[in-house]
Amino acid sequence: MHARRAGGAACAGGRGNAGGEKAGGRGNAGGEKQEHIDRIKLARRRLIIQGAALTVVAASVCFLQVMRRRGRGYSAQELAPLRAALAELTSAIRAATAPAEPHPDLYPTVMCIPGFTREELLVALSYLVDGRGRGAAFLAMSEPHRALWIKHILAKQEI
Q: Compositional bias (Gly residues) at which positions (predicted)?
């Protein structure tokens, strides 16, 4: 038996009636469950990258300490493996933190807001796509708040 949270979702990995899903299997738990799985995958990927980063940094520090104790400078040959490792780490971090696909409802929602030109709406859309959290927060807003938010962003962007 699983303990239930206040929202009705099970504590152990999201099993049970998540998101108010009815016992008959109806509801919108499929999309919420997939988003939860995607968040877990992203968190795992970030942890792996952070672990790799710490390993590379620790190895670099040890290497530099040994070289310092020897009292001699660093040649390009000695630093080449370190540079290669750091370049590999940099590319892995960029790949893991690359922007995810935007929410499928984001484009039509932004482009249908009245009172703005297409150019202004595209600037706002570009800003929202840069951060998935921004897009999700925007979609959760009411229609008047969305228009107010776009006015604010356009003022910040000086458009």
A: 10-30
